[in-house]
Model the fold of this input.
Amino acid sequence: MEKFVGTGVALITPFTDDLKVDVKALQNLVNFQVDNGIDYMVVLGTTGESATLTPEEKKQVIATVVEENNGRIPLVLGVGGNCTSKVVEELKNTDLSAFDAVLSVSPYYNKPSQEGIYQHYKAVAAASAKPVILYNVPGRTASNILPATVKRLAEDVDNIIGIKEAAGDMVQAMNLISQVPKDFLVISGDDMITLPMVLAGGHGVISVIAQGFPAEFSKMVRLGLDREVDAAYKLHYDIAPSIDLIFAEGNPVGIKALLAKHGICKNNLRLPLVKATEGLTGKINSFVDNF
Done:
């Protein structure tokens, strides 16, 4: 589990102007992350616009990332949904050999009870050939995995090794950290409170903004883990304005604009997402120019 201590990045899926998967841009993106010190990468998460990809395109994204990474850093695959049997079937029929873990979002739209969430993840973990990281993001799922439920899963299911906690609630994060076993990974899913969570006993982050500033953000997390608090917070406050900017019109709208400014990919998204407005794009470009 040490391989997931530090900074993970939730990769975007770059698109060409005709909205096909941009393989060359994806290769560039992978190398940008690895070359700048990211600890691991997450493929086909929310930031990757996985909801708009066909099964064939998902295979294309996976093959591209796996080949370009070439075993240099660990990989995590996003596999989740709101029908437990479909998630189980997908896990049983997916080649996970190139991946070190699975990130699975809590069921969305259905609004299950805590018992429903618990039973869902028990079934998912039983079907997965690789360790499972829970993903709690109430703003998207309309339900919250409570710390007591995470503790129960951590204690009952050996194959569940951690959680990406993206409720954006520091009180909940601290309750979570204090309740789960010490070797259970509590990973921030909220860029703005990553450093406070690390200093409270968390293990790092699965980040969006780190994709745009991989060297700086991963350094901040390492400093936090090493308890170099002043230096870590200096970097946090340097980067923080960009976090507000990239989420102002939704994710991955802002980070794609930022990566386009870097020249890594084109600023193309699939509906129902649309490009950042001219005003926001100008603010992002100005931030990058002056960073």
About this structure: The radius of gyration is 18 Å. The beta strands are 6-10, 40-43, 75-78, 101-105, 132-136, 160-165, 185-188, 204-207. Residues 229-247 form the longest helix (19 residues). The chain has one domain: 2-228.
